[in-house]
């Protein structure tokens, strides 16, 4: 493995909104900063057609917001390199970031690798993603005012987001079992909501469309095998969300599901390793919250490195006194 010579103050892993904000804050504080990304900078914003809940813009295309954030993040001298990070090794006061054939050395690392939604893997899901198929009610619900929606799933997210969507649309929750896994209090709210109907014991086998947008779903009842087709304008899928944290599991900083645990300063259990954005154990996963985390982590990384320098200087001074 080729180790680069430069020692960075901070390496940020992942160039979504969280990572780009962390790089902005760190480099603006004069820290030498490297942003490592395995794809195109922008993260999930690149998969978002329109963003209507990022302050400063009434509406903006996701990739356009990504480009603006990238320009912002790079303006104070942060470096950007391609890298698919596989491991972080703790070596005294240094953190070694291994990405493919290269490894990079830093004093602090900020993990900003995001999460991904589990897919159903059915026909029409990819074809109509962003054109009626969505994994985020807060992001896309407002596009469906007065429409008919199917929500797929039976856990907390599916039922809670189903309730949220009723402020815009009529919602049919399709669930493969005869009862929800969601907390009872959330279930109670759903049962009382007149805009929610429930299709029990059923799975969606196909998402239909007219080539441009979603027009319906094909539903199979698991008990009777009866197939029905239901006209809907949108399908919200909540069958699980997974953290992109495989590369960091051996650091012991994750919970049982792989979400990285931090305190409110984005510090993990390992000093000098921070985590931000969607990969973190938290409730609201949005661009605004990722950006907020990024600012906090960039700032705390600066404080951490100042402390580190103070400690090293004090140790050197103590050694000189002994000499
Ligand atoms: C379809 C869709 C629509 C959405 N719409 C909205 C919306 O309208 N408004 C809103 O606020 N939020 C929206 N969201 C949510 C929002 O996009 C996320 O909350 C936000 O992008 C999270 O930012 P992040 O920086 O934590 O992670 P991400 O944006 O997921 O970025 C993580 C980055 O890390 C990189 N990466 C991952 N692993 C590695 C690795 N091992 N090595 C190197 N790089 C790695 C990835 O390639 C990616 O670029 C939407 C999400 C989706 C999926």
From TrEMBL:
Top EC class of this enzyme: oxidoreductase
Keyword Hydrolase: no
Cofactor(s), names only, from the UniProt record: FAD
EC number: 1.8.1.9
GO BP: any one term: removal of superoxide radicals
Domain FAD/NAD(P)-binding, residue spans: 8-294
Catalytic reaction(s) noted: [thioredoxin]-dithiol + NADP(+) = [thioredoxin]-disulfide + NADPH + H(+)
Single GO cellular component term: cytoplasm
Signal peptide extent: none
InterPro entries listed in its UniProt record: FAD/NAD-bd_sf (IPR036188), FAD/NAD-binding_dom (IPR023753), Ferredoxin-NADP_redctase_2 (IPR050097), Pyr_nucl-diS_OxRdtase_2_AS (IPR008255), Thioredox_Rdtase (IPR005982)
Note on how the cofactor is bound: Binds 1 FAD per subunit.
Molecular functions per Gene Ontology: thioredoxin-disulfide reductase (NADPH) activity
Annotated keywords: Disulfide bond, FAD, Flavoprotein, NADP, Oxidoreductase, Redox-active center
Keyword Flavoprotein among record annotations: yes
Sequence similarity: Belongs to the class-II pyridine nucleotide-disulfide oxidoreductase family.
Subunit-level organization: Homodimer.
PANTHER family given in the database record: THIOREDOXIN REDUCTASE 1-RELATED-RELATED
This protein's name: Thioredoxin reductase
Originating organism: Trichococcus ilyis
């Amino acid at each position: 493995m080729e180790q680069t010579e430069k020692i960075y103050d901070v390496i940020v892993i992942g160039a979504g909104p969280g990572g780009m904000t962390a790089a902005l804050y760190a480099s603006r504080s004069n820290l030498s900063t490297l942003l490592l990304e395995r794809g195109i900078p922008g993260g999930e914003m690149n998969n978002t057609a329109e963003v209507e809940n990022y302050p400063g813009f009434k509406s903006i295309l996701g990739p356009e917001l990504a480009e603006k954030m990238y320009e912002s993040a790079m303006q104070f001298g942060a470096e950007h390199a391609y890298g698919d990070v596989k491991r972080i090794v703790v070596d005294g006061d240094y953190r070694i970031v291994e990405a493919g054939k290269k490894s990079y050395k830093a004093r602090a690392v900020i993990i900003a690798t995001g999460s991904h939604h589990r897919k159903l893997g059915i026909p029409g899901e990819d074809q109509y993603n962003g054109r009626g198929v969505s994994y985020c009610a807060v992001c896309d619900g407002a596009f469906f005012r007065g429409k008919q929606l199917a929500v797929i799933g039976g856990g907390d997210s599916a039922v809670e987001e189903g309730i949220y969507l009723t402020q815009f649309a009529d919602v049919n929750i399709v669930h493969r079992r005869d009862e929800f896994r969601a907390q009872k209090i959330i279930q109670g709210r759903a049962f009382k909501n007149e805009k929610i109907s429930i299709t029990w014991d059923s799975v969606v086998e196909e998402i239909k469309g007219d080539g441009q947008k979603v027009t319906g779903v094909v539903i199979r009842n698991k008990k009777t095998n009866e197939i029905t087709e239901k006209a809907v304008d949108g399908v919200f899928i909540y069958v699980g969300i997974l953290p992109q944290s495989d590369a960091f599991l051996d650091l012991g900083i994750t919970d049982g599901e792989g979400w990285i645990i931090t305190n409110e300063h984005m510090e993990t259990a390992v000093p000098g390793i921070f985590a931000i954005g969607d990969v973190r154990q938290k409730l609201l996963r949005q661009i605004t919250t990722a950006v907020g985390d990024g600012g906090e982590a960039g700032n705390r990384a600066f404080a951490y490195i100042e402390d580190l320098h103070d400690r090293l200087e004090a140790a050197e001074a103590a050694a000189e006194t002994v000499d």
